[in-house]
Design brief:
CATH superfamily of the largest domain: ATPase, nucleotide binding domain
Shape: globular
Distance between the termini: 39 Å
Number of helices: 11
CATH class of the largest domain: Alpha Beta
Radius of gyration: 25 Å
Number of domains: 4
Largest sheet: 7 strands, antiparallel
């Protein structure tokens, strides 16, 4: 393999993707340059009328071709369009477009290796798996890179892929697998909020050490097109130098700019229906596409009071080819600002989904659109006796395209300040200086520089604690399942490269059968220690994918024999989790695999 010439950061966003890069300079000149050499790849994409254009952003949409001819040099036999044209065609034919593939990749209720996307699409539509969809996006970026750097293949570079901080161990494995399917056999992972923070560190106009001090807790709020992520980073000190520690991450919340666009689309649809026009599901999708553009115009141009939106007409009630209505500034302020960022107390929590009975399988969307209430719950969860200060951040860093709108940033700051004032704390400081839509990929490159000793690293380790479910031995009771205990096999914050063995606890596994372990995670139990057995599992534990291991016969053992094993846990250098069963007799090893093919 050729020596790497570039550090490459890939932001695999739910709605948009970006690739950044910088040259690797050998010798003493390869000092941290505050990001001066970080560039964005212009990504080739198909356009209408057999045209090709480039953009720094690749919209995360896949559309199965109808009559469109492939025009990119690398996809002459490709059945799918990827990028902006796919999004536009999807607005016209919504049953054939794949979106939010990254959110499907972490959905434990479906088989993520099965061809299920587009979900609930046309019967005639060609379907692919969430894993394959992510591999297709990475492959597109790889081919676009090759067009720009034909002598320096992407698989030979130092590639860092960003993931949500809330991605569990199984979802992280799937991202690595998708990269391998695309031909990238070796990638590193970094959490998106950390990458955004690295991007802020890399800007030199206002050096970060002048903006924060020892003891500060920085809240990173990342609201993108499809997801909302929260993280806390603490500023510590060692040997007179400031250090950065990621101390908390939130849950994976399917809530973002797409929800806002759909909200406005429903308002526009009702406005049209009030005039006697019937709006179909596909027309609502079209309206959502139009409302996204209207929202962006109204939020960026204070002179505009309204923007027209149009949708293609169908049916006898429609006269002419299109129907039109307006999205007003009042629509945005009353429904988006107040709906997604309402004033609330620190003690308020988002409403739970109260739906019951049979329901359609889909993504696990947030039941409450109030980002501010989700944030209140996240901060309240951090206020334990050992670290009450984590609930009262000193500074905030915004990330994600949603926060391009100053009105959203100002509203969230006002809400947080009200919580801090009520608790007798100083108002929060806003950290400026990052490109909200591109910071994550840029920060991934800076992280690559930091790993090479050319910048400060954020210490974080495992983003959540992980547990195996252990059944309590008890006499059989009809209709009653034995209660589960939780064995901590990875403590939040455990550093990459750690190898840990669960001492003084063994398990009996039967040869010839598949061993299964129920697996749980928690992002708010940082005090639990590795190897600790928690007797009572409560709502702070969230079940994720099963872990399984095939137990073939070996060394004279036959099916049905019982083997006494211990557990060993490895936190890999790229941030994934590996769990092994090790025989106590001869140290034979079986790796537990995440079962992503069945709902947990």
């Amino acid at each position: 393999m050729a020596a790497a010439k570039y550090i490459v950061g890939i932001d695999l966003g739910t709605t948009n993707m970006v690739l950044s890069y910088s040259r690797i300079i050998s010798g003493s000149d390869n000092e941290a340059d505050d990001g001066e050499a970080i560039n964005y790849l212009l990504i080739a994409q198909e356009q209408p009328k057999n045209a090709v254009d480039t953009s720094e952003v690749l919209p995360a949409f896949i559309f199965e071709r109808l009559k469109e001819k492939p025009v990119l040099p690398w996809n002459s036999d490709n059945d799918f369009i990827i990028g902006e044209f796919a999004r536009e065609r999807g607005a016209e034919v919504p049953d054939r477009v794949i979106s939010s593939a990254k959110s499907w990749l972490c959905n434990t209720r479906v088989d993520r290796t099965k061809a299920i996307l587009p979900f609930n699409g046309e019967d005639s539509a060609k379907k692919i798996s969430p894993l394959q969809a992510m591999a297709m996006f990475i492959s597109h970026l790889k081919n676009a890179w090759l067009q720009e750097f034909p002598k320096d293949k992407l698989e030979n570079q130092k590639v860092i892929v960003t993931i949500p901080a809330s991605f569990d161990a199984a979802a992280r494995d799937l991202v690595v697998e998708a990269a391998k399917m695309a031909g990238l056999s070796s990638v590193s992972l970094i959490e998106e909020p950390q990458a955004a923070f690295y991007s802020w560190i890399s800007q030199k106009e206002n050096p970060w050490r002048r903006q924060v001090k020892k003891g500060d807790v920085v809240l990173v709020v990342d609201v993108g097109g499809g997801t909302t992520d929260f993280s806390l980073i603490e500023i510590t000190e060692s040997d007179g130098e400031l250090n950065l520690d990621r101390v908390a991450v939130g849950s994976h919340i399917l809530l973002g700019g797409d929800n806002m666009d759909l909200t406005l689309a429903y308002i526009a649809a009702k406005r049209l229906e009030d005039t006697g026009k019937k709006i179909s599901r596909w027309q609502t999708v079209q309206l959502s596409h139009q409302c996204r553009k209207a929202k962006e115009i109204l939020l960026s141009d204070s002179e505009k009071d309204s923007v027209p939106v149009t949708v293609s007409g169908r049916g006898s009630s429609v006269i002419g080819g299109t129907i039109k209505t307006q999205i007003t500034r009042e629509d945005v302020e009353n429904n988006i600002v107040e709906g997604f960022f309402p004033h609330c107390s620190i003690n308020d929590e988002p409403a739970e989904d109260t739906a019951s009975g049979v329901r359609e399988l889909n993504l696990m969307y947030a039941a409450d659109a109030a980002v501010s209430k989700h944030l209140a719950k996240f901060l309240k969860n951090q206020m334990n006796d050992a670290h009450k200060e984590y609930g009262y951040p000193n500074a905030i860093l915004f990330n994600g395209g949603v926060f391009k709108a100053k009105i959203f940033r100002d509203r969230l700051v006002a809400i947080i300040d009200s919580w801090l004032t009520e608790s007798g704390k100083d108002q929060i400081k806003v950290l400026e200086g990052i490109e909200l839509s591109k910071a994550v990929s840029r920060g991934a490159v800076y992280f690559g520089q930091a790993v090479s000793g050319k910048g400060i690293r954020i210490r974080g380790g495992v983003s959540q604690s992980y547990y195996l479910g252990i059944e309590t031995p008890m006499p059989a009771v009809p209709g009653f399942k034995p209660p589960l205990k939780a064995l901590c096999v990875a403590k939040q914050g455990t550093e990459e490269g750690s190898v840990l063995k669960v001492e003084n606890r063994s398990f009996g596994l039967v040869i010839g059968k598949t061993a299964e372990f129920r697996f749980f995670k928690s992002n708010c139990r940082r005090e639990d220690e590795f190897g600790q057995l928690i007797p009572d599992m409560d709502e702070s534990f969230e079940e994720t994918s099963l872990m399984t291991a095939e137990m073939p016969a070996y060394d004279g053992l036959k099916a049905g024999d019982l083997v006494d094993v211990e557990l060993e846990v490895v936190i890999t250098e790229i941030g994934t989790l590996e769990v092994y069963c090790i025989s106590k007799d001869n140290e034979h090893r079986w790796r537990l695999e995440f079962n992503v093919r069945e709902a947990a």
